[in-house]
Design goal:
By secondary structure, the chain is α+β, with helices and mostly antiparallel strands. It contains five helices and 13 strands. An eight-stranded antiparallel barrel has the order 1-3-4-5-6-7-8-9. Strands 10-13-11-12 form a four-stranded mixed sheet.
């Protein structure tokens, strides 16, 4: 991991800004698992070495697990393990330290792509994050403290409370995979893993505690999709006539053969759905695409996704706010009739438009 890698990641991030929508981790994909790696930069009694002030040579790997709470917040567990250190220019022997630092924290992620500041479906998802936990340092310290032999070397293991805060951005590469770029400031309630001031017995609480920046790049895998991650309004909350009207209209939505192009005769029924949504701004919609079992399952899955997205795009084009809409293709995985008959296959080739309240 070096400066060239981070420059490459930044270029990729900027190139993705023009792409507007994705699914990523949201109320339909409540879990996110990240694998990352990057550079650590020391800051403490020996001086601050942030933002590539010296050659970055201390690396670490880590990861995180996130759980969707609501459009603004995720609960997180995250940590890393790797090296940290600093050497000064003393001669003939450079003084300083090298430490293996392992940290684990529990925290919150505040997402700016929350439907208020930015669209939830933006591919570019900046966030702020903070957490509290613990760290372990295993240090090799080289120093010339008064009272110790010259060029004394000491190994020290310590566990201390740990705080981190920072932010980053996630950029959706696919519906289920994000590129993550992040910088976190890590502050340790321990003033000794860098060897200044040096104490074998206690932490000086009134001294400058040691800290470091951690710059990372990684991949996030979003998963956990299920109907339990959203809920539909009961019949007695949404007027029955609206439910019936939307269901009937959805049954009349048809596409060109093997295509996601909506047939013109479907426009009137889609317009009736638009009218309902514009008249009822608190209702959200989940558009499902389904196919029969004719053809390749993977191709059917892709086709069903494109058809669901075509319906969503039509509704957005007629003035429905995109943040109220989700689209998902299920291919041939959820038949409602027997695929061995033409009548059954016709029923399975369908779009469903479900109205619900977002949690």
């Amino acid at each position: 991991m070096n400066r060239k890698i981070f420059v490459s990641c930044a270029v990729l991030a900027l190139s993705m800004l023009g792409i507007s929508e994705a699914v990523a981790q949201n109320y339909l994909h409540k879990f996110g698992f990240e694998i990352s790696g990057g550079l650590r930069e020391y800051g403490g009694d020996r001086g601050t070495r942030y933002f590539l002030a010296e050659k970055p040579e201390y690396q670490a790997i880590g990861g995180s697990f996130g759980y969707y709470i609501n459009p603004t917040f995720d609960a997180t567990v995250y940590g890393s393990v790797g090296m940290l250190g600093h050497r000064d220019d003393s001669y003939p022997r450079k003084l300083g330290f090298t430490a293996q630092v392992t940290d684990l924290m529990f925290g919150l992620r505040m997402k700016l792509a929350n439907g208020k500041i930015m669209s939830e479906e933006s591919r570019f998802k900046p966030y702020l994050q903070a957490g509290w936990g613990g760290m372990q340092s295993i240090s090799k310290i080289i120093h010339e403290q008064e009272g110790y032999a010259e060029n004394f070397t000491n190994n020290r293991t310590w566990i201390a409370a740990h705080f981190s805060a920072g932010g980053g951005v996630r950029i959706a590469l696919t519906d289920f995979v994000d590129l993550s770029l992040q910088m976190m400031y890590n502050y340790t309630y321990d003033d000794n893993y860098d060897g200044l001031p040096f104490s074998l017995s206690k932490v000086r609480l009134n001294a400058l505690h040691d800290a470091y920046l951690y710059h990372t790049a990684g991949l996030v895998f979003n998963f956990g999709e299920s109907n339990s991650t959203y809920h539909f309004k009961p019949e007695d909350e949404i007027p029955e006539e609206l439910v019936k009207k939307v269901n009937l209209a959805a049954k009349n939505v048809h596409f060109e053969t093997a295509s996601a192009t909506i047939k013109q005769e479907s426009y009137a029924d889609l317009d009736s759905i638009v009218e309902i949504l514009l008249d009822n701004p608190t209702i959200n919609v989940y558009v499902e695409g389904h196919t029969d079992n004719v053809g390749n399952p993977a191709d059917n899955m892709t086709l069903s996704q494109k058809r669901a997205e075509s319906v969503k795009a039509y509704l957005v084009g007629k003035g429905v706010d995109a943040t109220r809409l989700e689209a998902k293709g299920y291919g041939e995985t959820q038949p409602i009739a027997d695929n061995s008959t033409e009548e059954g296959r016709a029923l399975n080739r369908r779009v469903e438009v479900k109205m619900y309240y977002r949690k």
